[in-house]
Each structure stands twice: as C-alpha cells, then as structure tokens.
Amino acid sequence: MLKVDNLTFEVNEEGRKRCLVNHVSFQVADGEMLVITGPNGGGKSTLAKVLAGIENADEGQIFLDEENISGYDIDHRANAGIGYAFQQPPRFKGMTVARMLSLAAGKELTEAESCRLLSAVGLCSADYLNRQMDGTLSGGEMKRLEIATVLAKPHKVSIFDEPEAGIDLWSFSMLIKRFEEIHKEKKESLILISHQERIIRMADKIMVIEDGEVKQYGSRDEVLPTLFTRESCGRCANGLEGGVC
C-alpha cells in the first residue's frame, strides 16, 4: 500500500513562495488503480515527481508498505518498488533501446523479452532495438519507449504521467489493454495521470487536483458523475477519447 500524508512542495519564484502541491493526502491499496486528473498546471505532474523522488517534499510523509520512504532519493525509491514514466521522457545519446530496456529490467533481456515489451506499446522490435534513444526518435516514440521501461520490471506502485500524450489511437488502445491486464492481475498498484475518459473510467479511485490541492477524492462511482458535466477544454475535446480538465 502507498500512503501519502500531508504532502507539500513549494518553489521560490522571484523571491516569493508558490505552493505547487498543497497538503495532499491519499492512499492506494495493493492492486488498486488511482487516476489523477484536473486542469493543466494544477500540480499533477509535480506530485508525481515528488512521489518518485525527483523532487523533495517540503512537508509530509510517504509510506510504502508501512515503510517511510520520505527521505529516499529516486534510486532508493525505485529499489523500494516505485516505478515512474515521465510525461516528457529524457533522451540518451549513445544508448540503444535494447540496452535501456535491459537496464530498466535489471537484467539482460533476450530479444524475445524485449520484443514483447515493445509490442505492448505498439512498436516493432526489429525497427527499434538497435536504435539510439536520441533526437532521431519522435516524441511519441520516446513516450512509448519510456512506458516500456516501466513495464520491464515489476513494481509495487507504477506511476504513469499522461501515458496517452503524443501517441496514436492504435498504440493507445494497446496501452489500455496492458493497463487492464496489470489491474486484473492485482500484483501491483497503478497511478495514472490522465485527462482521457477511457482511462478515468478504469479507475478504482479518482482524485481531482487543482491549484495544488485535492478538490475531489473518492471511488469511481462517487467522483465520476461530477467530472463529465464540465465543459471540456479544446485539448480534451480533440483527444483520443475525450476527457476533462
């Protein structure tokens, strides 16, 4: 179980403090799927980075299976069982896709194992295994490869920041299928940050964050009816499945 208690993260902007994550608390049970949604710039990605250890919280605590991991850096949190897929993945010149997948898995993967991972995100292994993870890859390709690195290793909690962004409908459908499989297996918990209705409807729990604060948090049946009565923004209206902001 992941338990987040009173998590707060602030930044200094021109000498003034701005709270990007404001006393956020929630829990994700074993095998549970939490979808976090809300307006752009509301603090969703910042919260994900704090959970992964990329940013350090100013206040609050994070517990994973009753172990306090609040002071852990990103490496120690990954070893403890936190997986994280960036919304905008970093590029690595000189690093092949095959090598990156093996590093992510923590072992040398066979070509067949790498192929299964790439197929799960809509990529053909023959076209990608020996390519470098650099500027020759598009943003959508990088996004799918980033997701594959998280899928390469079992985690207690996997965090995916807008997994649908920048990918085509077919690849999105494959990702949905994989998330459904992980959820059905109940072997790890999922936190998905998304605007997409199809992803939101998969959730056990939904949390709406706006201006760094939790505006709604509860079961899917409790929160879902209130979400799609709002006027969709242009981005969501033109998305793969429609969504909310």
From TrEMBL:
SUPFAM superfamilies named in the record: P-loop containing nucleoside triphosphate hydrolases
SMART domains recorded: AAA
Pfam entry (one): ABC_tran
Annotated GO MF terms: ATP binding
InterPro entries: AAA+_ATPase, ABC_transporter-like_ATP-bd, ABC_transporter-like_CS, ABC_transpr_CbiO/EcfA_su, Molybdenum_import_ModC, P-loop_NTPase
Top-level division of the source organism's lineage: Bacteria
Protein location: Cell membrane
Membrane topology of this protein: Peripheral membrane protein
This protein's UniProt keywords: ATP-binding, Nucleotide-binding, Transport
Occurrences of domain ABC transporter (ranges): 2-236
This protein's name: ATP-binding cassette domain-containing protein
Species name: Ventrimonas faecis
